[in-house]
Structure formats: C-alpha cells, structure tokens
Design brief:
- The model is unreliable at 9-22, 854-868 and 928-954 (pLDDT under 50).
- The radius of gyration is 44 Å and the shape is globular.
- Helix 9 crosses helix 10.
- It contains ten helices and 62 strands.
- The strands form ten sheets. It has a 30-stranded mixed sheet, with no helix packed on it. Strands 37-39-41-43-45-47-49-55-57-59-61-62 form a twelve-stranded parallel sheet. The protein has a five-stranded parallel sheet with strand order 15-17-19-21-23, with no helix packed on it.
- It is α/β, with parallel strands linked by helices.
C-alpha cells in the first residue's frame, strides 16, 4: 500500500512538473521577437505552426526556456530531414538580438538563399553553440563572430558560398572546443594555422574542402599545448611533406589528411601519435614503404592509405601487432610481395582491402580464421595458387568477396556448403570453371554476382534462372555459357551476359531491368516479339544491347513502350524494313546503333525529338534519301556515322552547327555538291583533344552497385576506317577526331576553312571529283595522322607546309593531277612511291623520277657546264696535236712510210690466216655437239610426249 502511494506521489510530481514547463510564463518581449523572426521565413511544411499569439512561446516547436525565469535560451530549428522537405527559407531577422539569454542556436540544413551570415550574430554574447551547417549562406564570414568569447561549438561548414578573407578573428574565441568550417574558402589567409594554434581549448577541428594550400606555420612551430583529439583536413591543396608539428599532437584520436597532394614518405615519427584510433592518408602522392613504427600505435582501429604510390612489401610483423585493427585499406598502391600470413592474427579485422597492387604469391590460409571478417578484396593482383574450402573455414560473417583479375584457381568440392552468406561476389578473371559452381545456390542473400571470364563452359543449370530472380546484378560475360533463353525471365536490375553461346529467342524482361546486355551471342527470332512483350508496368530499361546476334524482322511501333531507354544498340543483326517514326518517342536517347543491318528508307524526322542524342551509327545499311537538314538542331551530337548507305544530295550546311561533333563519317554514299565551307565552326575538331575536357563522358553509362565505389559501366565503341583499315575504338574513342567523306560524288575544291580543324587526326576525301589545289595552309593541322586525298582531280604543287605534319603516318595522294617537285622532308621520303602514283608530273624522292630533267639550270649547274666545255676544248687540242705528230712524220719520211705499210700488210695476212683456221675448227665442233644433243633430247622427252598424246586423245 505504501509503495503504491509513493508511486502515485512520484507520478503526481512529474505531471505537475510537466504542467509547469508547458505553462511557464513566456517573456512577452521575446515572444514578439520570435514572431518577427518567423515572419522573415517561409515555412512550406508548417514546422512553426505552433508559433502563435494564443500560446506561450515556451511550448513552441524548437523553443527551450529556462525552468525558473522562463527566458528563451535554446532554439532547435535545424532541418530534421536531409531531404529538404522541412526546410525553412528566407533570411535571419535581427529580432534574435532581443533573446538576450540565448546560448544555443541551431539553424542547420535550412535554406537562406545565399544571403550573408548577418554580422549582428556577433553581438549575441551569450551564445555557446552556433550551428549554421549546410544552411546555404554565402559571402564573407563576418569578423564580428570573433566577439562571441563564450562560444564553445561553431559549425559553419557545408556552405560552399562562404569565404574568409582574414582568419585572425578566430583566435579571439578562447573558449572554442569544436570548429567546423568545411567547404568554406579559406585560401585567402595563408596564416590560418597560426590563428588556429592559439585556440588552447580546441579539441576538434574540421576543415575539409577549404582550398587550403599549406600546413606550415609562419612562426616555425605550432602551439605544443594544443589538446586536439580530432584533426580533419581532407580534400585540400597541400602539396608538401607531412609537417613535423603534426607528430607533436600526442592527444590525437582522429587524423584525416586524405585527398590532398601530400608528397614524400610517411615519417617514422608517426608513432608519436600513440593514441590514434583513426588514420586516413588516402588519395595522396605518398611514396616509399609503410613505416615499421606504424605497428607501435597499439589502439589503431582504422587505417586507410589507399590510392598512393607506396611500394615495397607490407610490413608483416608490425601490422600483426595492431590487435584492435578492424579496418585496413591499402588498395591502389604499388605494394609487392606476398600477402603476409601475420594478417591472420588480426582477430578484430572486419574489412581488408588490398586490391589493385602488385602483390603475388598465394592467399595465406590463416586469413580463413578471421571470424569477424566482413569484406575481403584482394583482386587485381598477381596472386595465384589454389583456393579451397580451408581458405574460408571460419569466415561465417563474410558478406563481400572480391578476388577478381587474379590467377587464382577455385578448387572446392561439388557439394561444398560455404559457412558464409555473401551479398557481393566479384570473381571475374579467376579460374572457376569449367562447370557452373553449384555452391552458388546456397547463397540466399546475394545482390551482386560477377563471374566475367572465369572459364565456365556448358549449359546453365536448371536451378540458376529461378535462383537468380532476386539478384540485383549478374555479370557473366566472356565465358562459353550456353542454353536456350526463349522461356527465361530476367528480373535483375543489371544483367550482362555478352560474348557467350546463348541461343533461342530473346528472354522476357521484367519492368525492373535497367541494364541488359546480351550482345555477341547466337540469339535469333523476330525482334518485334521482344519489343512488343507485355509488362504489368512501364519498363525502367535504360541500356539495351542486342548487337552481334542473328535477330531478324522489322522494329515496328512497339519502341514507344521503352521510353526510358538512353542507350540502344541493335547493330550487326539481320534487321530490315524502315526505321520507324516511333523511335522519336525515345526522348531520353543518347546513343543509337543500328549499323550493319538491312534497314531501308530514310532517316525518320521524328529522330529530332531525341534532344539528348549524342551518337548516331546507321552505317552499312540500305538507307537512302537526303541527310535531314534538321540534324543540325541536335547540338549534343558528337558522332555521326552514316557510311556505306545510299544517301544522295548535298551535305547539309546545318551540320556545321554541331559544335561538339568529333566524328563525321559519311563515306561510301552518293552525296554530291561541294564540301561545306563552314566546317571550321565545329569547335570540337578545331581544338586539341584533351582527356580533361571530355564531353564524350555524357555518353558513358554506369550504375553504382552500392558498395565501396563499385560501378557497373558501359563504354561506347565504334568501328572506324582510319589509315586504310578498320579498327574498333572504345577507350580512346573520346580522343578521336575524324572526317571521312570518301567514295562519294563531291565536287569543287577543298575549302581552305577545313584547315582550321587543328585537332583533326584523320581526313579522308578520297574517291570524289574534287578539283583545284591542295590548300596551302594544310600544314596547320598539326595533329593530322592520316590524310587521304587520292582518286580526285587535284592539281598544282603539293604545298610545302605539308612537311609540318609531324604526326602524319598515313598519306595517299595517288591518282590526281599533281605536279612539281615533292616537298623536301625526311618524313615524306619515308612514304612509299605508290602513295603518289598516278601523278605523272610529280618528281622527287621517294619517286624514281628525277626533277633535274624538267627544271631550268641552277647556278651550280652553270659552273659544271663551263668546266665541261673546257674539258672538250682541251681534248680536241690534244687530239689534233697527236694526230698531226704521227701523220706528219709519215708524210715527210719516205723510208718510214714504206716500213709502216709493210708492217700493216704482214699483220693483215696473219690475222686472215688465223681467222680462217679458227672458223673451220668451230664449225666442226658445233656440228658434232648438235648431233649429240638431238639424240639426248629425243630420249628424254619421249615418255612425256607419249603421256601428252594419251591425255589429248582422252
């Protein structure tokens, strides 16, 4: 009884206390001040609906009053929802100044529309807590905030429109314990560190994304009395070594210097931070080895140093000492050597990321003893060897397994039941086949399955398709998996199974499918039966790739059912008929591939409705008609590939409006008229290709897989004819710049404006009826690698500026009417003479025709001719003197004359006798040799003659 009375008394006191709180007499002045504050705001969700004259302000939402005085001392008006639905909008009213006892003000995650933080806040001297985080303020942070000497917590971060010009006011906040200025521009004051180091009470400092560019104190040192426990400076512009003052902060628990440009090695003095629990040095440019002293930080629980240039082996025994380590991320470095077995001693380890290094050797078996391990990612290394059940013995908590791009061989029994239930499996590139792994069907909570190129051969097991219905992402590309898909239902959000051996008709898709790639298989049947399949709700499909199959039939009008499509590839099938007008209902389309089919008719005008279209590939069909002039209205177009069709008429001038165009391929059609002179307006071809300015990235397709930055992506590829041969371009496609107008009926001259396309890499105007001269300034296209002007009617000399094309590796000027000397250049002389054949008036290397026969005398040739004349004059004079020296003596001396002629008669008689005897000897031996030869040949040819007669008679 007494206990029950006691309970009743307690309840009564509680009720009375509650009633007293709600019925506190609100200060009327403060009440009206709050109402004026409310009037300056827009409250779309009526969060402040309780703020009215009829109720006391101490009962209003977000208002806290002192229990004794009834004065307002706290305002909790931060947006409770990250979605922004409960956002207060407007500006701060100076009515807040009348809340003289206010010490807590939280206005975070509201929307003050870029207005400046009002300077009057610096007069609210009672404030100990001020939170304006993410409230969309802009402009200069007022220096008056330095007057808040009682302030302990200041959160201005999350307002990227704010900046600080002079940071000295921060040093006046002597009571400050926690400071967050993240995303505020602080780079204007290089002495920020000096001012912060004067805050002897500061415990937590958060300055991410502040554009800071130095960590060096102008005084040469930093206050050693700092008792910082949290120092978070990620995503700034530090480009120096880690400063020594850092390692004097022995009280630090958290140190985050990630995503900067830190250089040098990790100092061994990092062990001075013996209280560290969290260390993040990721995404920097650190080099060298992981210091041995790191193993002395006994309380370290999270260690992240990924995406640096660390090299050498992981220090096994030092890391093995970190018994509290639960998270170890060293991926994307240059670490080599085997994975140390000492990591198996880290019993608290839950996340181990060593992927994308240069590790080798085998997977230590004792990693299978880490019973708390949730995530294991060791892919993209040179790890080899066999993995068996022993490697997973105790991993019952494992959820994420990634051993992709290694040489590991899985050797588990057919009836193995793993101890884990995985959510993500990345085993691409391992040796998992040839049989489909049966243990997969034991995994009931799988969300992601990546078995790309794992050597699976044979038919998909019967259980697979039903088991796979609830898996979000399935990636089976580049295996030899077979099976008939005609009766299969695909329910996965992402299904990629290209480059296999699937047959039958296309499977049925549920409305949940977003990414479907079944290219390069042997699927057949009518495309219309797939496009017209019935669905209970609108499809979410964004990417559909059915290329390189044997699909047939016409597209029909069911395309309008797939309006969410952004990427459609039906290339290299047996499709026919006209491209339907319904394709214009795909309003979100970015890339359209219909190449290498048998489509006929013209390009549908409705395609102009696809205002995001960036790539058109209709090559190798039977399309005809004019190229629509309205194609120039699609200013996002980067690729037009219409080669090998039957288009006729002029090239529309409107094509010059496509400033983003990087590939224009209209080759092998029946186009006529002249080349548009306005091509220089295509700015993407007039500038140097850059990987930084990649407009082509808008065509990329990727889906976040929900774990550790994992994406499933798709890159566009094209078959292009460059340098006389077909090649497939994928990764470097965004950097390609091509104009190919070859094999048409174009006439007129080559417009000089085309030489303004300085970024062009391949220009092919061959096999047309172009006339005139090659533009003199063609040498300005310095990035040109391939130039083909063959089979035209070009005349005149080859411009000397062509020697400026230092990247040129393919040149064909054959079969024109070019004349004159080839420009002198080592590079031009390296080309084959066939590259200039069909120009009979050309001369000079590498042609065999010498230009000296066709050119006037030069100065050095005149000198040579003069010397030759004097040679002939001297020779004639010598001949006359020698002739008359002999003949004159014979005429004058009779005895000499008789002796001379007697000598000649004797010589004549001897020569005659020798000739007669030699001729008789030759005739005798020739007749004898001829007789023997006839006998031998008749014997040798007799069998062949007989066989020939028999063949002829048959």
């Amino acid at each position: 009884m007494r206990n029950s009375e006691l309970i009743m008394e307690v309840l009564l006191l509680a009720v009375l206390s509650l009633c007293r709180t709600n019925s506190l007499a609100c200060n009327e002045r403060e009440k009206h001040a709050l109402l004026r504050f409310k009037q300056s705001l827009t409250d779309p969700t009526n969060r402040l609906s309780s703020w009215s004259l009829t109720e006391g302000c101490c009962g209003w939402a977000g208002v806290r009053c002192d229990n004794v005085s009834g004065r307002v001392f706290e305002l909790h008006l931060g947006n409770p929802e990250d979605s922004g639905k409960s956002t207060l909008i407007g500006k701060l009213s100076p009515a807040l100044l009348e809340l003289e006892h206010l010490n807590f003000l939280n206005l975070s995650l509201n929307d003050f529309r870029g207005t400046p933080i009002p300077s009057f806040l610096g007069s609210m001297s009672s404030l100990t807590y001020l939170n304006l985080w993410g409230a969309s303020f802009g402009g200069l942070v007022p220096h008056q905030l330095g007057n808040l000497s009682s302030l302990r917590q200041l959160y201005l971060g999350g307002n990227p429109g704010l900046y600080v010009d002079n940071f000295s006011w921060i040093s006046l906040l002597s009571s400050l314990e926690s400071l967050d200025l993240g995303w505020i521009d602080l780079h204007r004051d290089i002495h920020w560190l000096d001012y912060v180091s004067q805050l002897s009470s500061l415990l937590e400092l958060y300055l991410p994304h502040c554009q800071l560019n130095n960590m060096i104190s102008s005084q040469g040192y930093v206050n050693s009395t700092l008792s910082l426990s949290v120092l978070s400076l990620p995503s700034n512009n530090f480009s120096n070594n880690m400063p020594n003052w850092l390692f004097n902060l022995s009280s630090l628990l958290v140190l985050d210097l990630s995503d900067n440009s830190l250089v040098g090695q990790i100092p061994s003095t990092i062990s001075n931070l013996h209280n560290l629990n969290y260390l993040n040095l990721s995404v920097n440019m650190l080099i060298g080895r992981i210091p041995e002293s790191l193993g002395q930080i006994k309380h370290l629980g999270i260690l992240s140093i990924f995406s640096n240039f660390l090299c050498g082996p992981i220090i096994p025994y030092q890391l093995g000492n970190l018994s509290f380590l639960s998270y170890l991320d060293l991926h994307s470095n240059k670490l080599n050597g085997p994975i140390p077995s000492q990591l198996g001693n880290l019993s608290s380890l839950s996340h181990l990321y060593l992927h994308s290094n240069e590790l080798n050797g085998t997977l230590p078996r004792n990693l299978g003893l880490l019973s708390n391990l949730v995530a294991l990612r060791i892919g993209n290394n040179s790890i080899e060897g066999t993995i068996s059940e022993v490697n997973f013995a105790k991993l019952s908590k494992l959820k994420f397994l990634s051993i992709h791009l290694t040489s590991v061989v899985f050797n588990v029994s057919h009836n193995w039941i793993p101890p884990f239930q995985l959510q993500h499996i990345f085993l691409s590139g391992c040796k998992l086949g040839p049989k489909f792994p049966a243990w997969l069907q034991t995994q009931r909570f799988l969300q992601m399955l990546a078995l790309h190129d794992v050597g699976i051969v044979g038919t998909v097991p019967k259980w697979f398709w039903m088991w796979a219905l609830n898996i979000q992402t399935i990636y089976l590309s580049y295996n030899q998996i077979s099976g008939n898909l005609s009766q299969v239902l695909i329910n996965s959000t992402n299904f990629v199974a290209d480059s296999n051996r699937f047959v039958g008709q296309l499977p049925h898709l549920s409305p949940n499918v977003v990414f479907f790639n079944i290219a390069n298989n042997s699927l057949s049947g009518q495309i219309s039966s797939f496009l017209c399949q019935k669905m209970n709700e609108r499809s979410k499909l964004r990417l559909l790739d059915l290329s390189n199959n044997a699909l047939s039939g016409e597209l029909g009008h069911c395309l309008m059912r797939w309006q969410s499509l952004t990427h459609l590839n039906l290339g290299s099938n047996n499709l026919s008929g006209e491209i339907p007008e319904s394709i214009g209902s795909l309003f979100s389309l970015k890339a359209l591939h219909l190449h290498n089919n048998s489509f006929s008719g013209g390009i549908p005008l409705s395609l102009n409705n696809c205002r995001f279209l960036g790539l058109i590939d209709f090559a190798e069909n039977k399309l005809t008609g004019n190229i629509p002039s309205r194609i120039g209205e699609r200013t996002n177009l980067m690729v037009i590939r219409l080669r090998s069709n039957e288009f006729f008429g002029d090239i529309p001038q409107q094509i010059c409006r496509l400033s983003s165009l990087i590939i224009l391929d209209l080759a092998n059609n029946r186009l006529s008229g002249s080349i548009p002179r306005c091509l220089n307006n295509i700015s993407a071809m007039a500038t140097i290709p850059s990987a930084i300015d990649d407009k082509f990235s808008t065509l990329k397709f990727s889906i976040y897989l929900g774990y550790q930055g994992s994406y499933l992506g798709h890159r566009e590829d094209l078959i292009l004819v460059v340098k006389g041969r077909k090649s497939t371009y994928t990764n470097i496609l965004p950097l390609v710049r091509i104009v190919d107008l070859s094999c048409n009926n174009l006439s007129g001259g080559i417009p000089i404006e085309i030489c303004s396309l300085f970024g062009l890499q391949s220009l092919n105007l061959s096999r047309n009826h172009l006339m005139g001269r090659i533009p003199e300034n063609i040498g300005g296209m310095k990035y040109l690698e391939s130039l083909d002007l063959s089979d035209n009617h070009l005349s005149g000399e080859i411009p000397q500026s062509i020697t400026n094309l230092t990247f040129l590796s393919y040149l064909d000027l054959s079969y024109n009417n070019l004349s004159g000397r080839l420009p002198s250049s080592t590079q031009l002389e390296s080309f084959n003479a066939f590259d200039f054949i069909g120009n009979p008036e050309l001369c000079g290397a590498p042609l065999l025709k010498n230009c000296t026969e066709n050119e006037g005398p030069r100065g050095d040739e005149n000198v040579e001719g003069s010397e030759r004349s004097w040679f002939y004059i001297g020779a004639a004079t010598g001949f006359i003197e020698g002739f008359w020296g002999v003949c004159g003596a014979l005429l004058c001396k009779r005895a000499w004359r008789r002796a001379y002629f007697n000598f000649l008669n004797n010589v004549k008689d001897r020569v005659y006798m020798l000739t007669v005897l030699k001729w008789s000897w030759l005739r005798y031996h020739f007749r004898r040799y001829h007789t023997i030869s006839e006998f031998v040949m008749s014997k040798a040819l007799q069998p062949g003659i007989k066989r020939g007669k028999r063949w002829w008679q048959s």
